[in-house]
Each structure stands twice: as C-alpha cells, then as structure tokens.
Amino acid sequence: MAKMLVAGNWKCNKLFNEAQLFVDALKTALQNAGDTSQKDQGCDVMIAPPSPYLAAWAQQINGAFKVGAQHCSHVEPGAHTGDFTADMLASCGVDMVILGHSERRADHAETDQHVATQLRHALDAGLRPILCCGESLECRESGAHHDWVQGQITAATADLSAADMSRVDIAYEPIWAIGTGVTASTMQAQEMHAFIRSIIGELHGDELASATRILYGGSCKPSNAAELFACPDVDGGLIGGAALDPVSFAAIVVAAQSTACPT
Ligand code: PEP
What is the pLDDT of residues 174-206, one digit of tens each? Predict the structure, then answer.
C-alpha cells in the first residue's frame, strides 16, 4: 500500500499573514484532532499556498509539512514575463508541485502537451509532481470519462521512465466535484482509481502501478474523507476548500492516518 498523502491546494486564497498564522493553527488542530505523529503513522501532509509566499513559507514550515506549489511554467528560463520554472520553485525550498489542475487547463488554456513539459521540468528539478486528471460532467454523462482520463494520463506520462514515474503522484479530480459540494461516491471514486492504476500498469508495469499514489480530489471534507480513504485504490486526497480551515484540514489528515494505520 502506498503511503497516504493529504495535500491542500489553497488556490488564490489567503494573505501572507494569514498563511503564516495557519502553520501554528494547523499544528494545534492536528494535536487536538488526535494526530500523534504524521511520520510514525505513514501519512504525508502537503500544503500549496499562493506562489508569492513559497520561499518565506518554506523557511517557516521548516520541514513540518511538505511545501507545494500550485503550478510551474512549461517555458525555459528567459523572456517570459510572469512565468516561473520548476528550478526556481526548488530553489525556494518547494518539495512538490500540482500540475494539470482543471482550473489551470480552463483559465490558462494549458494543454496535455504543456502539462507533459511541466512534468518533465518538475522531475528534472527534483520536485515531486501531483498530476491532476478528471472529466467534466458532460464527459461523464456521455460515457467518455474513461477515455478522457486515459488520454490525459497517457499524454503526460507515456515518455517517463520507471524511475521518473516512481516520483509522480496522480490526483483524480472529477471537475463536477471540484468546489461544488458534490463528492464522487465511494463507488465512483474506487472504480476510476482502479482504472487509473490499470492504465499506469499498462504504461509502466504492475509493480509501479501498485506503488503509485492516487489521490481523490473534489469536495473532500471531514464528513466524507474516511470513507473515501477506505477505498482500496484511494491513497489520500487533494483538498481545496477544506484545506483553508486548519480544523477541517487536520480532521482530514487524521482520517488518512487512521486508514493508514488502523488501531
Ligand atoms: C481542487 O480544486 O483541487 C479541489 C479538490 O477543490 P475542492 O476540495 O474545493 O473541491
């Protein structure tokens, strides 16, 4: 079983002082929620704040959690106003980067090709990427969701070596569940996660597929995290709205820890 990961994606939320205050608030909330030690219980915790905060935040966190970025550019260093590269993130103390989020694909016209390039750059920079995939409601209702997700994963990872792939986490995030309050049922999540694992098996071999961490994202919250994480192919969560509140996020972390190490 892959080590569980609970990753928070703050998107475009919180001012810097709020981000600073969050660190101690989360530590307290984790203790109150029954966290005994994330290291001992086999659960990784990552938070991705807005990019301008990353360098200072990485220093403040000082290894207590993993520091994530929400994006890196596909361009090489040079004349690209407003862009930043994976190397730049790594030089600021960033550990992980979320790539291919549906909001980036929609708001910034990021294509599978852009995502494949970003993934290559992230791996070369020593970052651990979380590759997002997931279908729209229209796509699911038309029955094309498996083909859609398969296309996204194949386009991004087909050229990766086994060593590269062993450093990639996948997040299945059905677009119809993101920020809507509508969560995929455990049956829908498990079915798609098992399918994603089978795609990775076809592309990169069964051993790698079973070791790959596949997160669920889309209105995951304290009230549904435990049942989602109990699905055999769900290895944690990518959390949006509920990651903004330390108490909610801590409850989700503890749900993952309980799944990883039932007592
Ligand atoms: C996300 O956008 O990655 C996400 C999962 O958001 P939410 O939890 O708010 O649905």
Answer: 999 999 999 999 999 999 999 999 999 999 999
- Residue 170 CB-density burial (10 A; 0-12 exposed, 13-18 middle, 19+ buried): buried
Joined tokens for residue 115: 């995502």
Whose alpha carbon is nearest atom 4 of ligand 1?
240
Give residue 259's pLDDT.
86
Name the nearest CA neighbour of 149 among 159, 158, 141, 139: 139
- Annotated active-site residue 227? The verdict is no
* Closest Cα to atom 7 of ligand 1: 240
If pLDDT is split at 50, 70 and 90, which confidence band does 263 have? very low
CA-only gyration radius of the chain, Å: 17
How many CB atoms are located within 10 Å of the residue 84 CB?
Answer: 17
Check residue 35 and give its pLDDT. 74
* Among candidate residues 223, 226, 210, 224, the one with its CA nearest the CA of residue 166: 210
Domain-wise residue ranges, the chain: 4-260
Whether pTM exceeds 0.90: yes
Which letter, b or e, does each residue of 86-113 get, where b requires 16 or more Cβ atoms within 10 Å of its Cβ? bbbbbebbbbbbbbbbbbbbeeeebebe
Pick the CATH number of 4-260 from 1.10.10.10, 3.20.20.70, 3.30.559.30, 3.40.50.620: 3.20.20.70
70/66 Cα distance (integer angstroms): 13
**Rounded distance from Cα 219 to ligand 1 centre (Å):** 6
Strand partners, 16: none
Q: How many CA atoms lie within 13 A of 191 on its CB side?
A: 8
Of 64, 72, 79, the residue nearest 124 (C-alpha) = 72
